[in-house]
Amino acid sequence: METHKARRKRLGRRSALVGGGVAVAIGALIAPLVEAPAASAAPRADEVRHPVDHVDPLIGSAGGGNTYPGANLPFGMIAWSPTSTTGDQTNTAAANGYSYDTTRVRGFSLTHVNGAGCHPGAAGDVPIMPFVGEVDSSPTADTKDQKYAATFSHDNEKAEPGHYRVGLDSGAAADLAVSERAGVADFSFPRDAPARLLFRTSNSLNGSENAHIEIDAQRHKVTGWVLTGAFCGRRANGGENNRKTYYRLYFSASFDRAFSTVGTWENDRLSPGATTADGGEGYLTGADRAGRGSGGYVGFDTTRDDDVRMRLGISYVSLAGAEANLRAEIAPRASVADVASAGRAAWDRRLRAIRVSGGSEPRRTAFYTALYHALQQPNLISDTDGRYPGMDGTPHRVERGQTAQYSNFSGWDQYRAQVQLLALLQPRVAGDFAQSLFNFARQNGGVWDRWVHISGATHVMTGDPSAATLATFYATGVRNFDAKGAFDSLYRQATVPHPDSLSDKGCPGQCEGQRPGLAQYLESGYAAQDACHCWGGAAETLEDSVADDALARWARLLGRGKEADELGARGGYWRNVFNPGATGTAGYSQARNRDGSWVTPFDPASDRGFAQGSAATYTWMVPQDVQGLADAMGGRQKAAARLDGFFHKPDGSWSVRGGDPLRYDPTNEPGIHAPWLYNALGQPWKTQETVRQIVANVYGTGPKGLPGNDDLGTMSAWYVFAALGLYPQAPGRAEALLTGPLFPRAVVAPAGSRRALTIDAPDASDTDFYVHAVRVNGKLHDTSWLDGSFVRQGGSLSFDLADRPDTTWATDPGRLPH
C-alpha cells in the first residue's frame, strides 16, 4: 500500500503539472444562447467526452422528486412532456404532471417547471393527445380520463435530453424534440383505425381562466392560447390568494398533411366540424372544475401513411411571436431526428462545463443528470425578437446589453445552491437572470417577488431571496446587469416599509409582503410572531438576516460603506431569536412575540414560528455567522457535539434520510448546508464523512434517485457541489467550503470564460474520501475553505485522500471559516 508520505509527494508533482495555463476554444453555437465552455488541460483517457450520454431524465420522476422526463433545452421556454392521470381530469399523478409510477397519460403538455413542490405545480399548458378512435363526445366531459387517455409501458418509453418518445397501448405513439421555443413531433397511429389529435387548450395543470382554439383546415394549422396561472393555488396555507391569472401562452401548430375531420368542444358540448372554441376551467379541483373547459381536434387519413408530423412554436407575447419563434429556430423540413440531434448537441455543450474523469457509470449518471436538472432553469420567456410579458401585464423588450428575459425563480430554494452553480458555470445567463428579476421588480412597483412564475408574482415561501441571489451573483463575478440600480431597489425594499408589509392576505404560505412587518422588524430586531404578517416569525428573522448580510457584502463591494455597516448589523439579527434556555438543556431558535416574550410552549420538533422546517433544523440556518452561532451554543466543541446529534440517532447510527424533525432532512432546503458546518467548527473530517454518507445513500440513479422535490434544480445543484468537493459558504459570498471529491478529476470550465477550475483527487473512491492534504495552484493549503478569488479566477485544486480521517488538517482555530 502506498504510504501517506508518498501520496503527499505524488500530489505535489501532480499539482505542478496541472497548474499551467488554460487555453480557450469556443465551439460553434448549436442553438441560440448556447455558449461553449472553455477548454483546459489535455483530457485524461477516462474523461467523460460526451456528458449527455450519461443523463437519465427519469431520475427524480418518482418518490417526490417531481422532475419530468420530456424534451427541453437548457433554460428553454418549451418543455414538452407527458401529463399523467390517476382518474381525475382536474389533477395529476405528481406535482409537475408526470409520475413514473403512473402509466396513463391524457396528453403531452408544452410547458413544465422542474421539481416544484406544490401539487399540481405550475404550467402543464396545452396537453396534446394522439387518440385512436372517433371523437364522439366532449373530451372535457370525460372527467375521469376513462376514454380520451391511454396507458403505456416503460418498455416503450425513451427519455433523452431534448428528445422524448413513447408508444401508447392504444397503438398511437409520440416522438417529440424541441429547440428553445419550438418543437417538432411525429405522431403515429394504427392504419386500420381513426387517427385523431386532441388539443386540450384549457387543461393546464392548475386549470385556466379562459382558452381559445382556431383550426384552419385550408392551411393545415391549429392555433390558440390559454390564459392561466394559479401556481400553488390549491395550497391550504395561502393558496386561495393565488387562484389568479398572470400569463397567456400562445401556440401555433402546422401539419404536413390535410385534416380528414375537425371539431371542437366547450364543456360537455361537442361540435363536429366547428373550427373555433373558447372557455376556461377555473382554478379549483374535483367537482368544482370537472366538466369545464374547451379544446379542439383534428383527424388524419393514415391508411397509406401512419405518421403525422407537426411543427409548433410557442410565445408568451403573441401568436405572431409563436410563429416567428418557430421560423427562427426550426427549418421548414427539419425532422424530429434533426431537431433531436441539435438539442442533444446543445445539452452536451452545456454539460461539458464540468468534465469528470473516472468513477463508476452509476456515479456518472447521477452526476450528469443532477447537472442536467440544475441547468434547466431559469427559463426563457422572451421571444427571438426580445419581447416578453412584463409583470405589469404589458409586453416589454429586453434591456440594452441583455440577451434574454428569464423567469421561474424559486427563490427560497435556489438561493442556497442552484444560483451559485449557475453563476459559476453560466455567468452570462446569471447576469441576464439578475437583470430579468430587476426588470420584473420595476414593473411591480419596486417589489421583488420571492417566487416568480412566468410574469406572475406568486409570493410563495418566506424571506427575501432576491437580495441573497443578486448579491451572490455579484460576489461571484457576474457583472452583466444593472448592479447599482438593482442594489438600490433591493436596499429600498429592505429599509422602506411597503403597504403590503402589513397585509395578511395569502398568509401563511404566500404572504404578500416581501419584507413583511418591516417597520416592526426594524424596531424590534426580529419578526414578531404575533405581528409579523409572515409565515413564521423565527423563520422570517433568520431568512432576512441571511439576506441582509448578503446585501451588506454587496454594498461593501460597491463602495457603499454606510449601507454595508447598517445591513451588516442586521445580518446579526438571528441572535434575537436564539433562546439559550429554550429547553433548559440547549439553546434553539425560537419565535418571539412583539413584547419580547418567547412563544411557548416550545418544542424543537415543532414548526411553530418556522416555514417547512422544525426549530431543530432552522437553528443551524446561520451560514453567515457560524462562529457566532457556535459561541451562542457554548463554543465550537459543544456546537459540534450538537451537530453530531443532528446527523445521528442516539445509538450513533446515521439519520440523514429525513422523517425525523429533530434531525437532518435532505428533502428540504433550510438545513441542506448543515453538513459543511463542521468545517467552521474545526472538525472538517466530519463534513467529509457526512457529505459522503448523504451522496452515497440518499442520492442515486433510477426514478427515486432524488431525496425530495428538486425545487428548480436546488437538490441537484447540492449534489453537483458535493461531488466536486466544494460548497458555497454563504449567500452573498464567493468563498467555498471543501470536502473530499467524488471523482478522481473534474475540470470546471465556465461558459464563455478563459478561466477553469481543475480538481484532482486521484485516490477518490468509496472508501477514500477523507482529506489529508490540499494544494491550491501547487501550494499546500491548510484551511477547509477557499477564498472567493479562486472561484472567480480559476486554478488547480488537488486533494490527497485516504480511508481514515485526518483530525489535524484544517483545524487551526485561527484559520477556520468565518
UniProtKB/TrEMBL annotation:
Keywords in alphabetical order: Glycosidase, Hydrolase
A GO term, aspect molecular function: peptide-N4-(N-acetyl-beta-glucosaminyl)asparagine amidase activity
GO BP annotations, alphabetical order: carbohydrate metabolic process; glycoprotein catabolic process
Ranges of residues in domain Glycosyl hydrolase family: 321-802
Name of the protein described by the UniProt record: GH92 family glycosyl hydrolase
EC numbers, comma separated: 3.2.1.-
InterPro entries linked to this entry: 6-hairpin_glycosidase_sf, GH-type_carb-bd, GH92_a_mannosidase_put, GH92_N, Glyco_hydro_92, PNGase, TAT_signal
GO CC, one annotated term: cytosol
Stretches assigned to the Glycosyl hydrolase family 92 N-terminal domain: 54-315
